[in-house]
Amino acid sequence: METRSHRYDRYRKALAGEALPVALVDLDAVDANVDAVASLVRDSGKTLRIGTKSVRSVDLVRHILHRGGPSFRGLMAYAPAEARFLAAQGFDDILVAYPTAQPADARLLAEVNREGKRVSIAVEEPIHLDILEAAAATHETRIPVVVDIDVSLRRLGGRLHLGVRRSPLHEARAVADFAERVASSHHLEFAGLLGYEAHIAGTPDQTPLGPLPPGAKRAFKRIACAAVTTLRAEITAEFERRRLPIPLFNGGGTGSAASSLRDASLTEITVGSGFLGSHLFDHYDDFRPEPAAFFALQVTRRPAPGFVTCQGGGLIASGAAGPDRLPMPYLPEGLSLLDLEGAGEVQTPLAVPPHVNLAPGDPVFFRHAKSGELATFFRDYLLVRGDHVESRALTYRGAGECFH
Q: What's the confidence (pLDDT) of residue 1?
């Protein structure tokens, strides 16, 4: 096991001469994460779809696909324009996991499918179907669609809702009725189901930063996992009763991959953050990825003994505001943010333990809370192997693309 001190030394050597700030990805750590995920998927008989929003770099997506082997098939995008961009880079079998009600998005999907690529999109309301059907008819093509299901934990007749707000479809009969509506269309193809258990995947087991103690979180996840598995099985049984095949059934995320791989109803899972290992995933029991993505800031000030100040650093993650959305100072070990200042737009002060010596110009390495969002702040990733920069990988931003 590599010590944090050794890791700091080799990253510092790799970045010698680089102008800070920079973002870097440790390829050895990425490979270890890919291998760990691939071994889980390989034994399950399912396949894995890469969640591109958690990578946001074409070169890195290619690297992960190649390393993962035959069990890694397809991509999950988060916007039609992103799917169009990825298809132009040579990728195929892309599932856009979020619906759209924009005719312009529907036109993009119709165009890319007419060109021979397979790009599907999640749907859950009639308006989604109407807009997609109109675009497909105009372009004389068919658009594959995947019906999105709300698998949040519901109790008290739906009055208690624990989970993210996604689809209005949450009962087996309603899901099957909607799928039959799709299957009857001349311009849409029923391509499968999406039942992502975000409330499970997004709940760490042990994090000290959340409002609930670990025991309560584990209990919630056990109950929620059982409910999701039951709902998916009910949906599968309803489709079998109607003799309506399910071409794919997607679920899972990095934080729920282990339980999703045990779900007999699913044919594939999605993983994204698990390849780069952002710090939100440090506190899961089943799978804990190796930290692989970092950004480096320079020390510019020493305002008082026991403190240094870095230039920049206000790279805050999306989601419910809280301390878990802040970047984490990682190397050298023992640094901490100040409660009254946090990570700032122009400077980030840090408390420094007595055994750490930092001078102006020295790098401090941080980890972002969410893997993909780091790419929105940098034009490229320095791909580090050992103690040298092996190559550079453009992020979406560096490729001139911005998807919302």
A: 79
